[in-house]
TrEMBL record:
The lineage of its organism: Bacteria, Bacillati, Actinomycetota, Actinomycetes, Streptosporangiales. The chain crosses the membrane at residues 58-78, 85-103, 132-152. Gene3D superfamilies: Phosphatidic acid phosphatase type 2/haloperoxidase. InterPro entries: PAP2/HPO_sf. Keywords: Membrane, Transmembrane, Transmembrane helix. SUPFAM superfamilies: Acid phosphatase/Vanadium-dependent haloperoxidase. This is Phosphatase PAP2 family protein. The keyword Lyase does not apply. The keyword Membrane applies.
Amino acid sequence: MRRRSWAWYVLAVAVMAGVTADVLVDGPLRRLDMTVHTFCDAHVQGGWMSVVHVFTQLGQRGVIAGFVLVPLAILGAIRARSLRPVLVPIVVVLLLSLLQEGLKSVIPRTYPAGGADVLWKHGDAYPSGHTLNGFLLIWVGIELLIVVLPVLDRWLTVRGRRDFALVTGILTGAALTAADEHWLTDVLFSLALGPVLLAGLVAAEPFTRPLWPGEPVRGRYPRI
């Protein structure tokens, strides 16, 4: 099992390195970016754009934080009589923001909305931070939901929560590409990195579990 996990990590690193190299040398994937941009710009309109836009919101940090994380964190803090359900999401969001800013600063790139794919001048399209949000912030939101409603832990296993976050991350990346808000390669990089970062949060779940206190369910939640 460990060998298989390491194989996935190596594959993810290879994909990120390969996509980045392709973008830098103007390879076939980057040329595909323009083809996908042209198709989506011409065909994803009207009702289709409205549907796609709904899924792009899964990666909008302001939307997820304002309508999901903040309310759940406040309710979780009240229920647990602790500030931990508030502090932990703040730390995760800050670290994720720093990571995104660092990655985007390496290869400045314009967004497809401008119609031109330009490197090294202006823009922070590469890689897609919104796609990473779709993986990680949704996971944090589910963890907070369990703080507020601990009974959900009977049905939402760690694996189930992970799989749900994987699906939302993939949907976010696909929607961002279809909505022409990101180049395909922006999203491909983050689709490789997102599951790795999510695996880190999942692996830390036994250690962060005391940070998500609530009513005892199967003896897992100590009261503090």
